[in-house]
Amino acid sequence: MIKKLTASANGQAGSDTFDGSLSELEDATRSQLEFLQVDPRSGKPAFNFAICRVRIRGTTPTGPGTTQAINCRVFFRAFQAQTTVSTFNTATTYRETPIVANYGRRVPLLGVQNDAMGQAEYVTLPFFAVDRINLAGPADLTAQPADVPNRQTISPASGKEVDTYYGCWLDINQPTLLFPQFAPPNDWDNQHGSFDTTGFAIQSINGAFNKAPHQCLIAEIAFDNLRIPSGADTSTSDKLAQRNLAYIDGPNPGAIASRRMPHPFQIPASSRTAQHVDELMIAWGDTPAGSTASLYLPGVAAADILAIAEGLYSDQHLTIDDANTIGVPVGPVTFVPIPKSYGLLAGLLTVNLPPGVARGDVYTIVVRQVTDAGTVAVTGRGDTGGRIAGNQAALAKQGGAATLSWRRVLGAFQINIPISTKEQLLVPEEHRLALFRWIAEGILPRNRWYPVMQRYIEQLAGRVTGFGGDPGKILPSPTGYVPGLPSPHGHGHEGGAGAHHREVSGKVNGIVYDHFGDFEGFIIETSRGESRRFHSREPRVLNLVRRALEERVWTTVIRERDDMPLSIILHGAVMVL
Predict the structure, then answer these.
(1) What is the per-residue pLDDT across 536-552, written as a single tens digit (0 to 9) for each?
(2) Domains in the chain, ordered, with CATH?
(3) How far is CA 201 from CA 135, 235, 506, 569, in A?
């Protein structure tokens, strides 16, 4: 696909074009990502991809000896949720293997950053156009195969724009073992095999990387001979670009709980060494009058936010909803100060829409983080020409001195709220609740996302109730399976005729050995007292089921038609680092 787009004079591959076929709208079939392993709409396995375009406008003559962009790479990385931080730092979020002379292999690595408690956490995940390194066993992530499709040499054309396309597989819905919830000390890249059977998956019962239905995806143009300056971000560098857009569906007319629009996000805390605190600038767009909103930030105290706001703004309307939640007026624009702390703060933005919203409406909310850009000392030398405002200008005119500071946007994300009907929204929301209950179930209490996920799940359950469903019947499921509904696999569920992939949940109550004493399978007893036998001779499977048997862990097996386990999930199992 990316080769065809690049080779085409107008960025076209068959009937598809980059500008025309790829819409940013989530309701467009080719633009919506799927978090379930099988698309519930079509019943087909779901695979997600991302494509970006690199533009170069040449000013040098064409022909032999022309300056080329040799081995121009693009690295794709995603954060755990929407975020206002894209700051370039190769020691944390933008880690990569060292540059090898003569344009050798160079690949992005997992991003690692300490949280407010000093725990090293994986915060960005790289994606590739080639397969990930085989993680069936311990694997050194620095040995990831070179992403050859995303390394191209571009020849500029004088006075023309040359477009080159890059892409990756977003394996966000795949159960491949990948990494633990926290980065192991001194072994972030698994060079000593510390992940092994205690590893976690991209979507894993023991702490999925994804913490929201939508993430921030960043594409980095990586030249070997022209490095991006440390501290640059998507607003200051033409070599960083991001997709940072979320959709939350709302119903009309809808019960109160169904008109609650939640989405997890993360922001960096204000630096402890900064002169001023950062601020969230929330532009509410056409969000209807009568809407209310709240910001839940368990990493900071609501009272601290309010105290800073009262010192900054002469007329502020923030309120305290609870110890870590502030009520936010839906304005045209609202400013919220961010207290000084360390690391990334996990949060939940919830917008409560009023009755009477109309089907077909789309409301747009933009959240920007504003930070210090610079400070300069100004000495009064006569008339300033009106370039310095207020008291600073008066002070300068009198021959005194003043300090002039200015601010800039550190980063931003956008939330779109399209209005539909509860009949259309119920089934997708039930699948989402099953999936995120599964994701949230294994997040360790000491993880910064734990309280956010608990509240998010509570609000998802309220939305299901408001849409006319029963959240009490929805159990955690990595496939979004909901009892009584067609399986999101599209092939039936446990007990259904013609099922290809099915889920069986219960407790392991037996391990099966053949007449040679070799492991050949295990038995699950369901909550109905039924027994299900599964066949496997894999030593790693034996280790898992032994653990499930000894610890009496509730276990889910996703199986194929012939009772071969496709995935095994140990619910609530504790990993020892």
Answers:
(1) 888 888 888 888 888 88
(2) 1-243 (no CATH), 248-466 (no CATH), 502-570 (2.40.50)
(3) 10, 32, 21, 10
